[in-house]
Amino acid sequence: MTSTKHALLARIPMFVELEQAEIESLCLASTEKQYTAGEVLFHEGDACEGLYLICEGVVKIFKTSPNGRQITIGMQPAPSSVAEVPIFDGGAFPASVEAVSDVAALFIHKRAFHQVCLSNPGVPVKMLAVVGRRLRGLIGIIESVTFGSIRQRIAQAILGWADQAGCDSFEMPQTHQELALHLGTVREVVSRNLSRFQTEGFIRFNRHEIALLNKASLRAEAETEF
Fold it and tell me: Based on CB atoms within 10 Å of each CB, which residue in 3, 32, 93, 121 is the most buried?
């Protein structure tokens, strides 16, 4: 890692208001870990031994069905934490986490983390805020997968990318395969629907670049009632 443990831990949202001594206690309890792109930090169903703090890089959180089909729950860039819930409920990891890029992480064993929480009640309160945001995102995914068509969900994804880019012409932040995994479908379906949007004059895309040509129509497609 290019920075000290102390500096890295201080950047994690749930720890930003801790005192220096409290950060130091976490440093002593943490272990440095390095992962290369494509390497899995842990698998769904594994016993949870502690908390993973993502200090550098990006990870993907995903679920896998019994037949091997994947759905991406979210992409988590540093600085952040993953696997918060099983730290408290004692259960196994509810999802898998994979490094999208090279990742530098810190691992804190659950016994040490529980002691920090007992000494610093503000930490679990902040963790609840993080978990709450994730839960809201999961509810949105469930609603979309349950009620929305693939066409509608792809339109929503394109509009979301445009909002993030702050303009109507941008580079796709995900490949067709990554978007398919996020939406719980297959790459061919994503590619086919993007081609249809282009034929209908909603967008123009070339490789990884998209330009919105008819944003109103695309928004109407995205907001179609379930």
Answer: 93
